[in-house]
Design brief:
Number of helices of chain A: 15
Largest interface: A-B, 56 and 43 residues
Shape of chain A: globular
Distance between the termini of chain B: 123 Å
Helix content of chain A: 55-70%
Number of strands of chain A: 3
Radius of gyration of chain B: 34 Å
CATH architecture of the largest domain in chain B: 3-Layer(aba) Sandwich
CATH superfamily of the largest domain in chain B: DD-peptidase/beta-lactamase superfamily
Shape of chain B: elongated
Radius of gyration of chain A: 21 Å
Number of domains of chain B: 3
Distance between the termini of chain A: 15 Å
Number of domains of chain A: 1
Oligomer: heterodimer
Chain lengths: 368, 612
């Protein structure tokens, strides 16, 4: 049974921050979707997202009963399951927007790449836990890169550039905190830069186009550049106080596509203005800061590394997603954590938050 | 050993997170606060469209307030590009529905390059096309249907040459009129009064600010400026007389073509004028056109038919038809001879059928014997007037013709008026590089040879005889009124010339012309038992290209003239048999004689102005 004392040790700042973000998310999804749906299905997206948020909260509560440290034991099993899942996408997955990313299970379409991020964090935390303090040479570091490299390539093959980049962010965040030698880290960066042209070669045409368009959206204003241009117009035209909920002309009149998923932050910017958007970013800062705090006070290396991985993942998501809607990051299809509509991402992110709570709750070594 | 205690790397991670959030907030501040206005205007550019609402053109009323030119609502298919150019696929589909060439649409798109206003592709489409477009709305983003006023000529061909027609501005006109605020897609007056008074008639277009969604479909109206209708014209035209004149011409042309040898009598012109003011009461030119054909864009087939008609239906023959005036010119020759003392009213000249110097004679070789001025003019004796020409000389003839107003435009405010030609030495020298011959003076004296005049000019000549020598600018519009009825501008008589003719000469000429329409005169038979005394002059102008043109120019009532009528029937033969019957019917309508009154009850009888 869950100890009463453990419950007292919940991170309420984190909980309230998450609730605030999800509440905002439901309102914004409602605003972004209500105009294009028939009235009887007007709040379908909001209801679905809300129901899954509740289910996940129950799930987190149950998970809090189990010590996060037991995850370490299954790390290798998780890793193999991850590879199987990613391979499954390649064979039975369904295509959307030029990439195979979905697996249909009953009424639910799952995006395995979302879950794979968290699984990656768990198994990598376990691996680094064993090597902590020994990452002084390439010999020690290269196996870690290979360990991440295999699922990375599978995700690239889908192709899902966004998730692949998230893997890199997780890897670098965790290996850095795990104490990698700075010189070795620099060498790896140098090698990475050298391989960049080869990496470019492996990109699909549409991915190359997205990156080109990121440099200059006006090369293709009605095609690939359209999202960026319309998103910037949406955010910019929100000005200081926004156009009000349901009042965003860019989102409500369909000038802004994908406005309840990847580009939801543009709706925030347009309807709530700079004040609202900045407040949301401050909520994210609190969330991420709590993540780092939890990493700092975790009772063991595994907890620290888990919290670091989760924080790295979330930080990268916020940076790339908000940066994309604001036109300073390329369009890569990375959702905004806890905000964008999408059941797989919501579940992954809430379980991640649950793990953070779990680590925080068990921070003291000795419980009397 | 815990990794966190071996280094302060978590602090660096916290700084990275802070930097990420700060840079994102900074970027948002730049977009939303610094550049907010700019993006705000771009968002408005996305969603707001100005849809001009065309102002209805001013209406035309006849002198008694009968509505003769109006507007009716019509559907116009337009393109409203939203996020970029309208896709080729849509243009091709639309061209298919409208049954026009895609290139026609591209031409219109290019004409309006860069504007956010709708591009009018086809105006006045039928309900079937409206239904088709509405049904396929989803396949045709950017295609909208507007309701626009379409010019409507209530009586179709009636007075078409006076009213003119409207159609869409073309590129040359746009080039010229752009500084005056005209824009692509505007409907402008191209002919007749529509052209002359275009600026007063067109009004001010209004517009709606409409919010559209990404497919260009209007979502809501944000603001509306009602269009200001154009100003109305009150015409000097009398609808009853105009209608009678049109009917009279049509009946007469049909009669001539079917019942006489003059099968080519297909064109004619009539003008009815108040000699005391210059007001035009009716003006007809045949063949005519239906100006309604142009209002919604004329079809190629209709345009071809009008263009290829050898009798030029688009010409207003009253002002642009130049005909030899024939015997109607003898009025001028007669006045000149009397005024310059070249002949006395009493002097009798022997007509043996041919002139003694040059063997030119009367038509059909008639010989009237010893005749004085009055007999010569009323019976239209050629030999007598050859002799007058001989005595006057070409220079005096020219002088008097010009004094009467020939050889120059009358100044009527209609496009396309011609000057005619007064026979003179300089013209012949210039064009033929030859000296003047006496035989040409003979021809000139009876209105043949080089002499050319428009029906309107001859009406003015007759007007000067009727009113004692005053020449007024003929006019068609008496009042310009605002849509609410207030009079903005009044137009009245404007003297443009005066010829001094002695009372004695005037009386003799008038009496002679009275004889024409009395028993024994050339028009006497038709006017037998006519209750109102009419004075007139017939003419039969030789036409080298076919049958003679028939003229009749007259005025009435003889004692106090209120009406001048000039009629010409191209290739109608003798004036007395072709033109006179038309004039008679017009005078009957004007003086309300033998009217069955079933045409247009309620129309007031024309009452001549007694002003002056």
């Amino acid at each position: 049974m869950l100890n009463r004392r453990l419950l007292k040790n919940l991170d309420f700042t984190l909980i309230f921050t998450v609730i605030a973000i999800i509440a905002t998310s439901l309102v914004i999804i409602g605003s972004a979707t209500h105009i294009n749906t028939p009235s009887e299905e007007r709040y379908w997206y909001v209801q679905r997202q809300g129901i899954f948020a509740l289910i996940n909260c129950v799930l987190i509560f149950i998970m809090l009963h189990f010590d996060y440290r037991s995850l370490s034991r299954y790390a290798n099993l998780f890793y193999i399951l991850n590879l199987i899942m990613l391979l499954a996408v390649m064979f039975v997955g369904q295509s959307a927007l030029g990439a195979q990313r979905w697996i249909q299970i009953g009424p639910i379409s799952l995006q395995p790449s979302e879950f794979s991020k968290l699984i990656m964090i768990v198994s990598l935390a376990s691996l680094l836990d064993k090597r902590a303090g020994r990452l002084n040479s390439l010999k020690e570091v290269i196996p870690v890169f290979l360990y991440v490299g295999i699922p990375f390539l599978l995700v690239m093959k889908q192709p899902d550039l966004g998730t692949a980049l998230v893997f890199l962010a997780i890897l670098f965040g965790m290996i850095y905190v795990a104490g990698i030698n700075t010189r070795v880290l620099m060498m790896i960066f140098g090698a990475g830069l050298a391989f960049l042209p080869i990496f470019w070669h492996f990109l699909k045409d549409y991915q190359k186009m997205r990156l080109t368009v990121f440099i200059d959206p006006n090369v293709d204003p009605l095609g690939s550049g359209y999202h960026i241009i319309q998103s910037k117009i949406a955010i910019g035209s929100g000005m200081l106080f926004g156009k009000g909920l349901f009042g965003g002309t860019q989102s409500q009149l369909n000038f802004l596509p994908e406005n309840h998923t990847d580009f939801i932050f543009a709706v925030v910017g347009e309807e709530l203005g700079f004040v609202g958007a900045a407040l949301i970013l401050i909520l994210y800062f609190i969330l991420l800061y709590r993540g780092i705090k939890i990493a700092g006070i975790a009772r063991d290396n595994f907890g620290t590394l888990l919290a670091t991985g989760i924080t790295s993942m979330l930080t990268f998501h916020v940076l790339v997603n908000v940066g994309m809607t604001a036109g300073i990051m390329p369009v890569t299809g990375i959702p905004l954590p806890l905000m964008s509509y999408g059941v797989s991402a919501l579940t992954t992110n809430l379980i991640s938050i649950g793990i953070l709570l779990n680590i925080y709750m068990r921070r003291q070594k000795i419980l009397f | 050993m815990l990794v966190k205690r071996s280094n302060n790397r978590l602090d660096i991670l916290a700084i990275v997170v802070l930097l990420v959030v700060v840079s994102l907030v900074t970027r948002l501040g730049y977009l939303q606060v610094v550049k907010g206005e700019y993006y705000g205007s771009l968002a408005d550019g996305n969603r707001i469209r100005l849809i001009p609402v065309m102002a209805p053109r001013g209406l035309f009323y006849d002198r008694n307030g009968i509505l003769v030119v109006s507007n009716r609502p019509g559907f116009t298919v337009s393109l409203l590009p939203i996020t970029g150019p309208v896709p080729d696929e849509v243009i091709h589909k639309l061209a298919g529905i409208l049954n026009i060439q895609p290139n026609d649409i591209y031409a219109k798109v290019n004409q309006q390059n860069g504007s956010f206003e709708p591009i009018r592709v086809k105006s006045d489409v039928g309900p079937d096309i409206v239904t088709k477009i509405e049904e396929r709305k989803n396949e045709l983003p950017g295609v909208v249907i507007e309701i626009q006023p379409i010019r409507s000529y209530v009586n179709n061909e009636l007075a078409a040459h006076i009213f003119g027609y409207v159609s869409e501005i073309n590129e040359a006109e746009l080039e010229k009129l752009k500084p005056e605020g005209y824009k692509a897609g505007d409907v402008i007056g191209k002919f007749g009064l529509e052209k002359v008074y275009d600026k007063a008639l067109r009004g001010k277009d209004g517009g709606g600010q409409v919010e559209v969604d990404v497919t260009g479909r209007p979502v809501q109206i944000l603001g509306k400026k009602e269009p200001l209708p154009g100003n109305n014209l009150v015409l000097t035209i009398d609808y009853r007389i105009q209608k009678a004149a049109e009917l009279a011409i049509d009946e007469q042309l049909k009669y001539l073509q079917t019942k006489t040898e003059y099968v080519n009598a297909k064109a004619a012109a009539v003008v009815v004028m108040n000699p005391k003011t210059g007001e035009i009461l009716a003006m007809v030119s045949r063949p005519a056109f239906n100006p309604n054909l142009f209002s919604g864009g004329i079809s190629t087939k209709d345009w071809k038919a009008l263009n290829e008609n050898p009798n030029h239906p688009m010409d207003n023959k009253v002002i642009s038809g130049e005909y030899p005036p024939g015997s109607t010119f003898k009025i001028i020759t007669g006045v000149a001879a009397l005024e310059l003392g070249k002949v006395t009213p009493e002097e009798k000249i022997l007509d043996t059928g041919k002139h003694w110097i040059i063997p030119k004679g009367n038509a059909m070789g008639e010989a009237l014997g010893l005749i004085n001025f009055q007999e010569a003019l009323s019976k239209s004796d050629n030999v007598y007037f050859y002799e007058m020409g001989n005595r006057l000389g070409i220079d005096n003839l020219e002088k008097y013709a010009r004094m009467f107003g020939l050889g120059t435009t009358t100044g009527i405010k209609l496009p396309g008026e011609m000057e005619g030609l007064v026979a003179n030495r300089r013209y012949k020298e210039k064009v033929y590089e030859e000296d003047w011959y006496l035989s040409e003076t003979f021809d000139a004296a009876i209105g043949q040879g080089f002499q050319l005049a428009t029906p309107l000019q001859m009406a003015l000549v007759m007007g000067e005889i009727a009113n004692g020598g005053y020449r007024y600018r003929p006019y068609l519009v008496s009042k310009l009124t605002a849509p609410n009825g207030t009079v903005l501008q009044t137009f009245g008589p404007e003297e443009t010339g005066r010829i001094k003719i002695s009372e004695k000469t005037l009386k003799l000429v008038r009496d002679s012309l009275r004889e024409v329409a009395a028993e024994g005169g050339t028009a006497g038979e038709v006017f037998a038992n006519f209750p109102i005394a009419i004075a007139g002059k017939t003419g039969t102008a030789e036409n080298p290209h076919g049958s003679d043109h028939g003229w009749f120019v007259c005025y009435g009532p003889f004692e106090d003239p209120s009406i001048v009528v000039a009629v010409i029937v191209e290739q109608g033969g003798f004036g007395s048999s072709s033109a006179v019957p038309i004039a008679k019917k017009i005078l009957e309508a004007a003086f309300n004689i033998n009217q069955t009154s079933n045409i247009d009850t309620g129309a007031k009888v024309y009452k001549p102005q007694t002003a002056l």
